[in-house]
Each structure stands twice: as structure tokens, then as C-alpha cells.
Amino acid sequence: MRASDVLKGTVYEILAGDIDCQITDLADDSRDVTQGTLFVCRRGARTDGHRYIDDAVARGAACIVVTDDIGIPAERSAGRWGDTDGVLIVRLYDYRYGIGMICNNFWNFPSRSMKVIGVTGTKGKTTVACMIKSMLDRWGRRTGLVGTIEIDDCIRKIPSVNTTPGTIYLHRKLADMVANGAEYCVMEVSSQGLMHGRVSGVEFDICVYTNLAPDHIGRNEHRTFAEYGRWKRSLFSKCKTAVINADDMYSGCIAAEAVNAGAEVVYYGVRNHTAAGDGNVCMAGAIHRLILHRVMGIGYECERTDGESTYMTVGIPGEFNVYNSLAAVTTCGIIGIPMEVMQDSQSDMKVRGRLEPVEIPGYARIFIDYAHNAVSLENVLTTLRQYRPKRLICLFGCGGNRSAGRRKGMGFVSGRLADMTVITSDNPRFESPEAIMTDIETGVLEGGGEYVKICSRLDAIRYALEISDRDDIVLLAGKGHETYQDIEGRRTQMDEREMIRQILEEKNAGIVRRCDN
Fold first, then answer.
1. 479 is in an annotated binding site
2. Per-residue DSSP letters for 349-377?
3. Domain 108-347: homologous superfamily in CATH
4. What is the pTM for the complete model shown?
5. 325 vs 168, 243, 258, 268, 316, CA distance in Å?
6. Annotation-wise, does 385 bind a ligand?
7. Per the annotation, does 85 bind a ligand?
8. Which CATH superfamily is 3-105 part of?
9. Mean pLDDT, 10 residues at a time, over the chain (517 residues)?
10. Domain with CATH 3.40.1390.10 in the chain
11. 210 in a labelled binding site
12. Is 354 annotated as a binding residue?
């Protein structure tokens, strides 16, 4: 494809080279460049793509797209970018719009070849997205997935690095889905993804809103809650139909954004039957906790304004999962999936790292959950407390280089709701794990709970299992689906399921390990 065709519809300035040179691929990481690649330089949070122009040219880039205001001719004469003779260099104006257009031109607008469903909110994105995909799969529709756990292009499943990947990689995977026969794509859309323009050029058919709560506020995320909410809200200016949680206090702002964009609005909820006015609505009636052979779940009466009422059984416990289920049911009802298909899908629903049970005969009931903020942890602990364990033991840490406010908040919640809190390390990144644990300890003390600090997560899990018995519940919070630990920029293998297995094997072999705290 000619560069002029790839750049069609964008605003750019030719600084050097032939605009009709041939482009064979797109990349925004110089390590991915091959002969004929168009390399997009962008200034990211950790590095600046303009620093890697020499490397991209050496690897065979045919076109360099710069976004800086730096004067290219002067810089070239100074030798900053080495020998770029024969390489097309253009300056792209309005990167956020332009990068999406470049991807769509190159991959032929892949999101137009599928029905794309976006899911956003502070909590519930992964569960709702997985529920929708499960229903579509059960209905026999080939469906791709982009989310926190993995990217599924209908042939391969690739572990995710970010909830919403970078623009070029995202469009590449959408194109792969189309090539693999996908009819639908379900996509988690994070506020960071929206702020950094990662979904630029993606055309959404349905967007789902779960909830909004203070989170992801800090130096490395969003500056204020207002900014965080503004980016969440922006997704609903891009869709044809909005599915909105009527019970959430910010639902009116989300609905207004959707209505202003000309979208149809459909509501779901448990309590707020009047918030939707005369609009379409799907509500939950009576809600029941379920325990079948020590496997927990929840059931509810699903009532729609068209008069249809169906009892739904969800294979994951918690009232918050009634909301998640309703979001998925409402979305799939719009698509036209029969209710009996949705019932079958929900009854055996499981999501990796979301109240995921680890069944060990003779031991406490163990759950692994991704809860990594105070609201999520409170929801999970409240849900588990409803099943009346003899003791509720909560193990967690907090991520480094993220909102410091989470630490005290999560500590307070666990101190108040758990019988024992085991404070440990999560992903310390470039912070001291001991300092993070001290911040958590402050909150636990305010919550008034019993606690212990054990920095090694393996030793912490060993301790939690040693002090528990069959009638207890042990919650391992924070890691969820993750199978690594991030320490000073390096990710090392760490899967809590494997840790539990290792601990039990050692115990069965008579090996005694001391837990230092």
C-alpha cells in the first residue's frame, strides 16, 4: 500500500522523501520494524519514540511519522537522526485522530466488519465482557475478546499487558479477528485507554457502563476524579446504543453523553426502577444466595419492561455479579440472543481471577480475586461474609507506582470486615514493598482488625493456609488472573494457584517452612 493511501484523511506535512513509497506494516515500537514499515513516533509515559528513529531506519522503515514540534531539517543536519536519506518523513497533526485513521486505512476499517461491544466502568469490566462473550459463544457466534486477562482473536489467546492495548496493536488484532471469521468483538475499554487514544478509529455498536468510583487517581494515572470520569464518559460519544447501570449515581451524566451523540439508551439495575423514566430497562427482582456442594453462586429474577421475567442463576457469588449479569443480559437481549441461551451460559459462568474458587478437600474454601481497590475489596468481603464462614481471612498487598490512597482504604476495609488480614506484597514496581505494607497497616489499624505482615507472598499464603480450617474462607486478593510479580520493571513468574499447589505438596512431603513476619 502506498504511504499516501495509508495517510489518507489525516493532516500531515511532508518533511522529506516520497509520499508514494510502499508500506508493508505499521509499528510504534522500533523493535517491531521490518523492511517497508511505517514507524509512528509518539511520546509515551516512559519513553519517547522519536529517540528510536535511527533504530527504525536501520531495521528498514520506509516511513517515519513524527508527532513532535521539533524542526526535522535542523535536527537532521545536526545528525540527531542519522542517515534518513530515501526515507519518507512526515509530521502528523492531531495524533489521537490520525493514528486511528492510519490503522483503519491500512487494515481496511476492521471494526466495521464486526459488531463491536465496548465495556467500561471502575468495576466489573472483565466479568461483564467475559459474560457477553460466553453468551455469544453459546449462541454459536464467533466472537473475539480484548480485555484485562487476554486477547482472543478467535484462534489464539494471548495474555494481556494492558486492559486496552495500544492503537496499532489493537487494530492489528481486530484485523486478525476479521480474518478469522469473527462476527462480534467484546472489548474492555479503560479510562487510560481512552485518555491515551488507544481506541482511536474503533467504531462501537454498543457501549456498556458498569459504575464509577474514585480510583486510578494519582501522579501516574488521572490527576483528579473529574478527569477520570470525563474520560469514562467520552466512550459514550462513540456508540450507537448505550447500556447503562441505572443505579449508579453518575448514570445521568453517562446517559446525557450518549443522548447528545444520538445513541439509544437502555438501562439495567436492581434498585432504581424509576431512573430510566420511559426508557427500556432490565431489572433484577428477588435475589438469592446459592450454595451447591460448597460451590457458591447467586440467583435473581430478571424482569424486563416488555413483561418477560426469567430466573437467572449465576455461577459466581455476590450482588455485584447480579449487576454484571444484568449488564450482559441487557446487552445480549439487544443483540437478540434467546433468554434460554443466556440462562445456560450464566449458570456455569466462571471468570479467571474473579472470585475464582480453589477447591482443596479438607481445607478452607479459598478464593482468588482481582480486587485491588477499597470498593472492590469491600464488595468481595461482604459477599463472602454472607456465607457465614467461621473466620474470614483476607490476604492482599497493593501495587507500587499507583494511587497511594488505595493502600489505607483497602487496609481499613479488610481490618473492618475480615477476622484476620495478612498484609503482603503485590506488584511493588519501583517502590519499597515494606513501605507499601506500612501504608496498608495504617488502614488496618483504623479498621480495628487483627493482622500480620509477611512480605513474601508465598510465605503469606502458606501462613494463611496454616491458620485456617475447613469452615473458614481465605481470600487471596489483588492478583486475580495475573501470573507474575512486577519488581523494578521485571516480571517474574508468580501464579497463586501454583503457589497453593507447591505449599500442599511440601506439606504432604513433610517439609516444614518457617513464615517470617
1. no
2. ---TTSSEEE--TTS-EEEEE---SHHHH
3. Mur-like, catalytic domain (3.40.1190.10)
4. 0.90
5. 32, 13, 22, 10, 10
6. no
7. no
8. MurE/MurF, N-terminal domain (3.40.1390.10)
9. 98 95 98 98 83 96 84 46 78 95 99 98 96 98 98 97 93 99 98 91 98 70 77 94 95 95 94 58 68 70 82 92 95 96 95 94 94 94 95 98 91 98 98 98 97 98 97 98 95 97 89 67
10. 3-105
11. no
12. no
